[in-house]
Specification:
There is one protein chain. By secondary structure, the chain is of the alpha+beta class. It has one domain. Helix content is 21%, strand content 38%. The chain is built from one helix and seven strands. Strands 3, 4, 5, 6 and 7 form a five-stranded antiparallel β-sheet that branches. It has a two-stranded antiparallel sheet with strand order 1-2. The longest helix is centred in the middle third of the chain and has 19 residues. The relative contact order is 0.22. The model has no long low-confidence stretch (mean pLDDT 88).
């Protein structure tokens, strides 16, 4: 597929939520690497909402690969929660 004679890039965004790794096998046609970066970053809060409150610590990550399979961007969101001494509810 081309846009004004230029190839339109396909990017793959793999995700990991500390439990499950999901490899993007289809990819998405996006305008450029910046659009892929934005999509990867936007996926992290959604992943966190889906998994919490199932614990107080988890790392969420998204990795962008280009069509050649080269990793071009990584984004990580680390969520850490802890009770203050003696404050955990019964």
């Amino acid at each position: 597929m081309t846009m004004l004679g230029c190839p339109v890039p396909r990017y793959f965004i793999d995700t990991n939520d500390d439990d499950t790794f999901v490899e993007d096998e289809e990819g998405q046609i996006l305008a450029d690497a910046e659009a892929a970066r934005q999509m990867a970053q936007a996926s992290l809060p959604d992943m966190a909402r889906e998994k919490m409150p199932n614990g107080d610590g988890r790392t969420f990550s998204a990795v962008v690969r280009d069509e050649a399979g080269t990793v071009i961007y990584r984004a990580t969101l680390k969520l850490t929660g802890e009770w203050s001494a003696g404050q955990k509810p019964c």
